[in-house]
Amino acid sequence: MSAKIINGKQIAETLLLEIKQELVSLQTIHQRPPTLAVILLGEDPASAIYVRNKRRACEQVGIRSLSYNLPDTTTQAELLALIAQLNQDDTVDGILVQSPLPEQIEEAAVIAQIDASKDVDGFHPYNIGRLAVREPTLRSCTPFGVIHLLRHCNIELKGLDAVVVGVSNHVGRPMVLELLLAGCTVTACHRHTKDLAANIARADLVVAAAGKAGLIKGEWIKLGAIVVDIGINRMADGGLCGDVDYAVASTRAGWITPVPGGVGPMTVATLMRNTLQAFRQHVGA
């Protein structure tokens, strides 16, 4: 069999268009656009690309983007002070601090400093907790983007046996919570899992979020399963690949996301959606 390709780029463009149209209607009522403050520390090339993509998406949909490009020598106190300033600014709806951060910065402290109502990345413990108790507010962009992808393809999630590979705070753990909320039976696999292949082989839905190229062998995939590859890994030739052996997996799966062009665009689109949601909450729309 040959898997149906889930075109994340196309689905993300549809979502961005919906956001733009909603913003046009909101601007007839409210006097300011939604505003996203993006903080970048240092000159990491990958981070610079991610930030540029987010700023372009803001321009595309009509969100005002504020840029704070700080040196990698910025102290934690200086960064926390800037976040505190943005928390108090009533014209700022979303605050995003691009990771990875320099070694002198404690990421958990940075996330906790952001006002939960402006946490458009969906990383704040309050927002993760709301998702855990089935009352989500601002949701982690990549996991919620995955849910949007699957729903756009009319894939029924209730009752599926799902396996999430990788349990990071930003992706794997909130992904587990999103799938539970959607009605899946969920298994979380990590470096201590004894038999990854056996877990993958019984899964109706596999979400790969380990960040290790080729970790999941194509022959492990159950016939007809749904495969969502969140992993992004740089190859020796400069190209990108996911955590799943795409060539073989695509001959066994029913649905599969490519890398690149699968989940990545949805992360940015969901960030725009979260910024719009934060704006609506702040202006009472």
TrEMBL record:
Keywords: Amino-acid biosynthesis, Histidine biosynthesis, Hydrolase, Methionine biosynthesis, Multifunctional enzyme, NADP, One-carbon metabolism, Oxidoreductase, Purine biosynthesis
Catalysed reactions, semicolon-separated: (6R)-5,10-methylene-5,6,7,8-tetrahydrofolate + NADP(+) = (6R)-5,10-methenyltetrahydrofolate + NADPH; (6R)-5,10-methenyltetrahydrofolate + H2O = (6R)-10-formyltetrahydrofolate + H(+)
Keyword Ribosomal protein among record annotations: no
EC number: 1.5.1.5, 3.5.4.9
Gene3D superfamilies assigned: Leucine Dehydrogenase, chain A, domain 1 (3.40.50.10860), NAD(P)-binding Rossmann-like Domain (3.40.50.720)
4Fe-4S as UniProt keyword: no
Pfam families, alphabetized: THF_DHG_CYH, THF_DHG_CYH_C
Domain Tetrahydrofolate dehydrogenase/cyclohydrolase catalytic: 6-121
UniProt cross-references to SUPFAM superfamilies, sorted A to Z: Aminoacid dehydrogenase-like, N-terminal domain, NAD(P)-binding Rossmann-fold domains
Domain of life: Bacteria
Limits of the Tetrahydrofolate dehydrogenase/cyclohydrolase NAD(P)-binding domain: 140-282
GO cellular component, one term: cytosol
GO molecular function: methenyltetrahydrofolate cyclohydrolase activity; methylenetetrahydrofolate dehydrogenase (NADP+) activity
InterPro entries, A to Z: Aminoacid_DH-like_N_sf, NAD(P)-bd_dom_sf, THF_DH/CycHdrlase, THF_DH/CycHdrlase_cat_dom, THF_DH/CycHdrlase_CS, THF_DH/CycHdrlase_NAD-bd_dom
GO biological process assignments: L-histidine biosynthetic process; methionine biosynthetic process; purine nucleotide biosynthetic process; tetrahydrofolate interconversion
UniProt: NADP(+) binding residues: 166-168, 232
Pathway: One-carbon metabolism; tetrahydrofolate interconversion
Function, as annotated: Catalyzes the oxidation of 5,10-methylenetetrahydrofolate to 5,10-methenyltetrahydrofolate and then the hydrolysis of 5,10-methenyltetrahydrofolate to 10-formyltetrahydrofolate.
Subunit structure comment from the entry: Homodimer.
Family, as annotated: Belongs to the tetrahydrofolate dehydrogenase/cyclohydrolase family.
Name the record gives this protein: Bifunctional protein FolD
GN (gene name): folD
